[in-house]
Give the backbone structure.
Amino acid sequence: MLSRGAIFCLSLAGILLSAACVGAAGTAPAADETIRADVLVVGVTPSGISAAIAAARCGSKVVLTEMKDHMGGMMSNGLGRTDIGPRNTVGGIFREFIDNVYAYYVETYGPDSQQVKDCSGGYHFEPSVAECIFNRMVKAEKNIRVKYHYRPDGVLMYGNRIHGVDFTDTRHKKRVQIRAGVFIDATYEGDIAALAGVPYRVGRESREEYGEAYAGAIYLDHLTRMVLPGTSGDGDRRVQAYNFRLCLTRNPDNRVMPEKPDSYNREEYMQVLDSINAGRIKTVQDVLNIEPIPNGKSDTNNMPKSLISTDLPEENYDYPEASCEQREKIVKRHRDYILGLLYFLQNDPEMPEELRNECREWGFAKDEYQDNDHFPRQIYVREARRMWGLYTFSTHDALLAPGSLRTPIHFDSIACGGYPIDSHATRKREPSHDTAMEGFFWLGGLTRPYQIPYRVMVPQRVDALLVTGAVSATHLGFGTLRMEPVWMALGQAAGTAAHLARRLYVEPRDVPVNRLQSWLVAGNQILTAFDDIQGPTAEVSNEQWQAMQFYGTRGFFESYEAKPLEPLTRGKAAQWLMSCIKLGDFMPAYGPFVKHLGGGTPESCLAQLEKLQIAQAGDPNAMLTECEMASWLSRIEPWIDGSISDTWATYTRPKEELAPIPQDAGPLVTRARFCEALFAHFRSRRSAPIP
């Protein structure tokens, strides 16, 4: 079993291993050109695009770089059936993208067309459509400059702070340095973070390290979900398999048949025949997971039940830390492997004729990737480096918290997710395991909608940097965070935080999280998932919806039921108010106050508010009225204004100075209304300058 020290790759080792791709800090030759920006985003992945758009809309000047010459990462390279949990877990810029996709199909083919039906509200799309929409969204932002063919080679650092990134402009054969106030690493590999010396991990933690039941080496039956003999739970440096998400079609007029690659080796595909003889493969869908997208095309992925498919386990182990040249060799090997698999399925004489003919119905879509032989440009890097940040997201963050009806609440939640934790295989088929491939699992039914803390994007000791792709997580935790909708949500949060860091003259780690959350909910970001309300309605205003999103990060809601129209009791209102005070949402300096707070029951919270002469004694089960709520909020003002001293004796005021609190006047307050009033009352506190 490997120790944490053996699994974690410290920055120095990472820099040495990947120096040919992203050279060590401070070693690059003088630049031929210097570009300045407020925010630099490296990687036109969906998270990078989202980060750039968010920062630009806030008012920052953004440079967005990419090593190649196309936009969109996996979403424009075959991942056309969006991998997402409950659709109410992600909004914001991702939702804007989905709405634009839907509008495209409606405008192009008509509202009643088959294409509109097949796009599933915008969640299913063709690769070329995804790239088109991303390009439109980026071009609409005048504050974004896109630089293609920019390969990162090094970083400029003073102490622990990044001041610039060195690139090679491979098109014009020159060196370029981009200086910025804040840098966002949106690469799948975490290259910029590694360059800057951010510690990271590659591989898997052991079962004991974070107490994750499915961690480490594991064999799990794909159908029964039973843990099988051979499972050790040991940590290692194995990386889950990569592949390409193919865009195939059966339309003869738009079909290009795969050709045999020069490196074709028939022997490595003979397992297909073994799986056919064992009954695991009966149709093409048993060996290729072919899922429809509009215009008769498919998003074709790996199929685990056959034990041989488009994944290529083991042969990506070196990819995370490899040089650019080494990575290209690994990518070519994966491409040749998949081409060889398709050729075998369609042409091998030992393939059953009926199955061979069925496989021959499928070919590459002629109108996709026309400058790349109709083959995807981006390999599916499911996982590479995972940086070591201020918080490590693990299995426990995506499962129900002990004794709770929700997953753990994070006061600094900046996004949500909900896709089941999963991992693709880390080893090829082994003769002793005929029902499972090591490392492959899918924890559907266990994973629940969860909050994602801002801290997973913030490196431990490097300033001016946020990481949206290679975030801080265990292998299992990363198994749910790694979906593109979540990455886009993280990108939106990072772009907004980068702008706020510049505007407030603080490092990204010091951005006031309550202010960041306020900006995010204004941009329709989801911070808290609910089952009973998905957004503003005729009864729940947009302001109330935003407030409930915000206060979901303060523990207001014990379950996934928001119950926005339910009247609020005085005790519950006191409990909510005290939870805010404890987290310092109201006061710039709240330490002396917090240490005197009592328990967290509705009765004890009401007693505390009474002692502070904010509330008045009474029945905690009685319903809160508008007049009483207004009185409570007004009586909190002295605490916010900083008029309290460090002495507990001065925390109370003579009762004769206070007007009586009306309890029976005005309409009853609903849960949504209380959140709205609280959120609005202290809006100025969240936008005040940092002292």
